[in-house]
Specification:
Layout: H1 2-11, H2 19-39, H3 51-54, E1 68-71, E2 77-79, E3 82-84, H4 86-99, E4 104-109, H5 115-127, E5 132-137
Length: 144
C-alpha cells in the first residue's frame, strides 16, 4: 500500500508560480525607465590641464581672432575688453567666431559671480557656434 501512495504523489504535475518572477521583472523595468533621464542628462565636461602645462602661458597667434568674454562682479559683460549687453553679445559672438580660426571662446569671471551666469554664457557660446570653450581663473593684480 505504501508503494501506491508514493506513486500518486509522484504522478502529479508540478506547478511553477510565475507571479513573483513577473513582479520582480516589472519592478526592474520600471526602475530602469525611471533612471534613464538621470543617466542621459547633459552636462558640462571639464578637461583639466596637466600640472606641467598649467604653469605655461597660452600664447595666441596674432592672426587668430580672440574671443574673450569676461563677467565682472557687477554682472557686466565684456567682449574682448569692451562692455556689451547680452543682446549685443548674441549678435557679435557669431561674427567673431566666423573670423576665428580655432572657434575658441575664453570665459572668465570674478570669484563672486554666481556660477549660473557663467554657465549661461558657456551655453550661449556653444549655441552660437563655439567649437570649444576655455574657462580661465582671473588673477588678482598684486598691490605694490
Amino acid at each position: 500500500m505504501r508503494n501506491k501512495k508514493k506513486k500518486k504523489r509522484r504522478g502529479g504535475i508540478a506547478k511553477v508560480n510565475l507571479a513573483p518572477m513577473v513582479d520582480i521583472t516589472l519592478s526592474l523595468l520600471i526602475m530602469f525607465v525611471l533612471s534613464i533621464p538621470f543617466i542621459m542628462e547633459s552636462g558640462i565636461f571639464v578637461q583639466r590641464a596637466a600640472a606641467g602645462r598649467a604653469k605655461k602661458t597660452v600664447k595666441i597667434k596674432k592672426e587668430q581672432t580672440k574671443v574673450v568674454i569676461y563677467i565682472d562682479k557687477y554682472d557686466n559683460l565684456y567682449l574682448n575688453e569692451e562692455r556689451v549687453s547680452l543682446d549685443s553679445l548674441k549678435k557679435l559672438l557669431p561674427l567673431l567666431l566666423k573670423r576665428s580660426t580655432t572657434g575658441r571662446v575664453v570665459v572668465s569671471a570674478d570669484s563672486v559671480v554666481v556660477y549660473n551666469k557663467v554657465i549661461h554664457i558657456i551655453d550661449l557660446s556653444k549655441q552660437l557656434g563655439a567649437k570649444s570653450v576655455l574657462i580661465l581663473k582671473r588673477r588678482r593684480k598684486k598691490k605694490v
